[in-house]
Known about the structure:
alpha+beta, 4-stranded mixed beta sheet
Amino acid sequence: MSRLARLDDVLVSRDGWLDCRLSGFRERDESGAEKFGLHLQVSGRLGLRCQRCLGEVGFECAIDSRLLLMPPGVPSSEWPEDELEADDYDAIPANREMALLELVEEEVLLALPVVPRHAECRFPADVGAEEEESEPSPFAALAGLKKH
C-alpha cells in the first residue's frame, strides 16, 4: 500500500490490503485478427474518508477488468470502437515495458466511489447541535433580561 502514492492521498490509513492477479490472454475476433490483452483482478479492503461524518468507511474493492493492448503507433482514432462500446474491454496502449503497479493503482482509483460515505451516519453539524441542546446558550439569559 505504501508504494501506491496516488491511492495513499484518498486513504484514511494504510491498514487496508489489496490482492492482485494479472494474466495475459490472446484471442481472435470475428475477422480472424489476433487480439492481446490482460485480465486484471483486484480484491481488497480500503479505508476511505466518509464525506458525511469524516470518519473512516470501509470499501470492499472488487475489480475484474479485461484490458485490450493496443500496439504502439496505432492512433486512438483507430482503436476498435465495438469493444469499447460493448464494455468487454478497456483499450490501453501496449508498451514493451509496462508499469504494472501504476496500472493496478489506476484501476483501483477508477473503481473508488466518487463520494464515499456510510449507509447511515450523522453529519458533523448534528454532533454540534446535540451539544447545543444540552447546554443553555449564554444569549438565552440575555433574551430573558430583555423581556423584563
